[in-house]
Every structure is written in C-alpha cells, then in structure tokens.
Amino acid sequence: xxxxxxxxxxxxSVSMATVSRVVNGNPNVKPSTRKKVLETIERLGYRxxxxxxxxxxxxxxxxxxxxxxxxxxxxxxLARGIEDIATMYKYNIILSNSxxxxxxxxxxxxxxxGKQVDGIIFMSGNVTEEHVEELKKSPVPVVLAASxxxxxxxxxxxxxxxxxxxxAVQSLIDSGHKNIAFVSGTLEEPINHAKKVKGxxxxxxxxxxxxxxxxxxEGDYTYDSGIEAVEKLLEEAEKPTAxxxxxxxxxxxxxxxxxxxxxxxxNDLEVIGFDNTRLSTMVRPQLTxxxxxxxxxGAVAMRxxxxxxxxxxxxxxxxxxxxxxxxxxxxx
Length: 332
Hints:
Shape: elongated
Order of helices and strands: HHHHEHEHEHEEHEHEHEHEEHEE
Radius of gyration: 25 Å
Distance between the termini: 67 Å
Number of strands: 12
Largest sheet: 6 strands, parallel
Number of helices: 12
Strand order of the largest sheet: 2-1-3-4-5-11
C-alpha cells in the first residue's frame, strides 16, 4: 500500500495541513514540528503525490518535451541542455519521441496537456500551419527548440540557418572552389529548403558561380544516405571538388563514400558538415563542421519556457544563438 499524507499526519501526531506545509517548504512551521514530520516521512518512505499537489496548486512542476528521436545524437544533446536547466529550476521532464510523424506529434501534444504539464518544449523538422494552430490553442506556454515556423507566432530558440549555410559555402569559395555541391536533409522540411538551400545558393550567386540543380542531392539524415549522395555526385561529368553537407552523420557517409572511390579527403574533395556533434571528431580525417550549439539551444529554450511559466518579463520570444565553423582536417 502507498503511504499517504494521512499516514504521515497520524504517525507524527500533526494535521495533514502541517504535513503539507512541511512538504511544500512553507516556513510557518515550528522547527521541532518540521523535524518530527521529516523524520516520519523518512521512516515511512512517504513520497508526495505530484498529481494531487498539482491539482491543489494548479501546477505540476512538470514540463513536456517532444522530440523526433532521442537516439539521434543531435537531439540527445538538446535534451541534456533542457534537462539541466529544468533541474536547476526544479522542474521534472516528461520526454516523448515523435518519430518525425505529424499525427504522432499532435497526439503527443494533446497527451502532454492531458498530463497537466506546466509547459512544453516542442521540436519538429516541419512545423506546419496545423501545428501552429494547435500550439496557439495550448493552455500552457510552448517553446520551439531548433525548429522554425515562418509566422514567428510561437516562441523559439534557433540559429540563423541560412547564414550558417552561406558561411560554410563561402569558406569553400574562399578556398578557391568553383564546383561545390550540397547534400541536404529532407527537402520538404523548411529548415532545409527555405534556409540551408537558400544560403547555399546565395553564396554561389553572390560569388558569380552557377547554381546547378544536379549538385543539390537530398538525403534522409542517415550515414547511408551520405554514401549514396556522394556516389551520385561523383557520376557528374564535372565532379564537385567540395561538398557542404546538412548534417554531420551524412557528412561521415560522404567522406567514407568518397574514400571508397579512391579519393583523398581533403586533397581531392573538401567536406563541411553541420551541427558539430561528437561524430565530427570520430571520423578520420576529422570533420570541419558548422557549430550549432545544441546543448545551449536546449538550455536557453528551457530557460525561456520558465520565464513564460512564471510570468517573468521576456525581452524577445524569437531567440537566435550565434554559430561558427569549427575547422578540422576535412578541409584544407
């Protein structure tokens, strides 16, 4: 049988209200009484019922986090940033994987609200109009992390993805490359077609270089799709001498696929990835990568959410963190 607040009150010979005050840190309890209640709680192994406390206070100190895939190293670092700040502000996390499925994302959103969470951090590669309408109807604050939506109606924490892609391609142009390809993640996702592809094309155009559709290859974020992409690009009559890749995992596939064809990276082919995950230092040569501060995005998103939940002043609902390029051995 679960130990209840009634059991603690009876054993400690105090009222249930007194036990509640002790549990919730209310200072209006005599030190001797507090000590007796805490000793009784310890002896009985009492654990406060968060749901019951939430019903009474209208707060559960619980935050829902919806992410595409916790096994993905990118989202794992984001989740860690969220968790660390949540712990600092004494919030618990309910974490759910959406598998990048819109129906599942919407179902999980309603499921989180049914659990009476105080706020939600939401991540998706494709935040649609339907998502926005559902998020706007949420009775609790919602913050997007590493996800974009064109109307800027939902608070978010990201980097400038277009400028980051531009900077990566520009660095290759500055190294003398004229034949630069782009291996993108799923092109139906705005973060790719509306941001990274746009930055890639802008860098080429501003330098007077042609934009070739055949140099833009769509992957699915996996290592294998990186291998397939570089194999396709190396079939071009005019082979690329440098490739910008939308994620580190695909970039590893590009490097290994090129090496399997007998090419030397970076002497025959320079490669730049994106995200600067731990994978970038696990490949040889080590991968040059755009630094997207995943941990910081998660941490700042959680801090922004705490401000909304506690009705603090928010200077800006749309936060863009700085990016940079970490140069390693896959570029000269």
